Amino acid sequence: MSKKPDKPLHMFREVWSKFENRVSTRLRPQEKWVHPKDRIKRWKIFEGDTVKVIAGDAKHQIGKVKSADMFTNRVWVEGVKVGRRTSPNEISNATDQSEKKGGWWLRPTLKAIHVSNVMHIYPDDLKDDSIPDKDKRRVRTRWKKVDIDGNGTMRWRRIVCGTDNVIIPLPPRPEKSEYKQEKSPWDTSKELASEMTWSVSKDYPLPQGVIDELRDRHKPWRYNYLHKNRP
């Protein structure tokens, strides 16, 4: 009798392809994967937040979150942990010929940071430019409903732990690029689309007697084929 595996079967499943080993690793990087049970359920750090790195080579550095991956619990911070990545000559913007090695260009790129290695900064320290980045206080935050407008409407906001009124402001939402579709001869004109092509009927979809019976909540039966012809 075979032993039951300790892990789910989908963790052992591997997609086999004869072309897998024929493609360069530069064009086929290994994807990061995190189990769903280990993913963060409710994030406190969003794109546009100014955070401070608390661990790693970029410790005490401050930057703005450029993007976040909620499936792998990673963030990319502008100007922090910048590395190099090889890319073909066609897609690289490098102008220095000395950076060319082996037919590939080395272009600067941001490296991912685990979200547990970054924290928010106290709002007062963030506004004071005289404080060096190393001495700016890092704080933990929690979600709490706060009456911001003073009219009794409670909204969820990020509050500094240990305080009741120090709020970490939410970053502005990124602007969505407008989708501009090219005109086509098969497009329907605005006048034709707004034209009234159907007539409004004032008749009920069911007989009036049936509607009155459906509105009566004290009757246990409802409209069916036995009462279809009932007046």
Structure description:
The protein has 231 residues and is mainly beta. It has a domain at 34-139: Roll (SH3 type barrels), CATH 2.30.30. The protein is built from 3 helices and 12 strands. The strands form 3 sheets. It has a 6-stranded antiparallel beta sheet. Strand 1 (50-53) and strand 2 form a beta hairpin.
CATH C-level name of the domain at 34-139: Mainly Beta
* Strand content range: 15-25%
Overall pLDDT metric? 78
Q: What is the CA–CA distance across the termini?
A: 70 Å
In one word, what is the shape? extended
Provide the helix percentage: under 10%
Strand order of the largest sheet: 7-3-2-1-8-9
Content-based structural category: mainly beta
From N to C, what is the helix and strand string? Answer: EEEEEEEEHEEEEHH
Q: Outline the biggest β-sheet.
A: 6 strands, antiparallel
The DSSP helix count reads: 3
CATH architecture of the domain at 34-139: Roll
Regions with little confidence, pLDDT below 50 for 5+ residues: none
Structure summary, number of beta strands: 12
What is the C-alpha radius of gyration, as a whole number of Å? 30 Å
CATH topology of the domain at 34-139: SH3 type barrels
GO cellular component, one term: ribonucleoprotein complex
Pfam families: Ribosomal_uL24m-like
Family: Belongs to the universal ribosomal protein uL24 family.
InterPro entries: Rib_uL2_dom2 (IPR014722), Ribosomal_uL24 (IPR003256), Ribosomal_uL24_KOW (IPR041988), Translation_prot_SH3-like_sf (IPR008991)
